[in-house]
Amino acid sequence: MGEHEARGWIRCDETAKQMLSRVLGDRAFLLLPPLHRVPLRAGNVVEITGSSPTAKTQILIQAAITCILPKTWNGVHYGGLEKLVLFLDLDCRFDVLRLSDMLKHRLLEAYRIGNGAWWQLEESNVKTQDKSKIVYDEELYVSCMKRFLYLRCYDSLELLSTLKTLHYRIRPQEACGSQVGVLMIDSIGAFHWTDRLSSSLALDKNNRKSLSLTNVVETIVQEMKKLMQVHSLVVIATKATIYEEKCPTNENNGKLSSNNAMPGNASSKAQQPPFREFMPSSWQAFVTHKIFMRKSGDYQSSGQQSLSAYSLEWLQPQLSSIDRFIVDDSGIVIVS
């Protein structure tokens, strides 16, 4: 290795001043409902568990929009974080048009609130289908979408290679002043059965490890930890349940009995989630926050339209309240 190559190999990615400003500038932030109960900060790993479908991806989309939106733009308050979102699609079913529609709705809603008098004046003169053309800010929309980095993986090895190269993929955006806010994974257990099937297959019997499910997940967790050491970000991952209890733990029980209110019972309940855990212990130890979601019957909207309702319960940290919400064209709406 020549002198020039050696200097290039040891050259730092950022100065000490840049590192301190990045680390010390991180603060806890709140996302929109239904993820508003607990403030999240860099280093947190949130696992959203539920059967399919329970609007887990919709929650990711709404949280992503909050991250990529700016706080203010041309005098209009949008309440965003103006950060990059890394979205790893392992289910390969992500609907980018849904993201686009929800983002446009947030832009129009914020513009309507910030320009109420103008909107009321135009509302009587402009057709609904033409209104978006008048108030739609194409430049703001494009800048938000540029902060959403979408990557699709088809197996665990491709996921590993993606995690190893993420730092280099986001370097151009960070050079322009945009910092990473959230790493989203939909869903972390997508390759569970294929990895489990190949656990008995050895790559090579000569001084090589076998390709086991535990080894793969441990390596994935290690790569995420390396990424979180370099970038101050929050990890939000969805996970589909395999076996789930039929009866909800809190929602259908109504009032809790005095025995259930005891601290010992509360801790034992937190240790026994209402679903069977299938991820290896390395992933379970990596998770800091746990959310459980399930269907919650139907909800009659104001237009007498029946929509599916869902409930969200915080298991870690354990909260007594359960949020009930629906999903409409605008996104997630809390109904109770």
TrEMBL record:
Protein name: RecA family profile 1 domain-containing protein
GO-annotated cellular components: Rad51B-Rad51C-Rad51D-XRCC2 complex; replication fork
GO biological process: double-strand break repair via homologous recombination
PROSITE patterns (UniProt xref): RECA_2
Source taxonomy: Eukaryota, Viridiplantae, Streptophyta, Embryophyta, Tracheophyta
GO molecular function: ATP binding; ATP-dependent DNA damage sensor activity; DNA binding
Residues annotated as domain RecA family profile: 20-242
Region named Disordered: 250-271
InterPro entries for the chain: P-loop_NTPase, RecA_ATP-bd, XRCC2
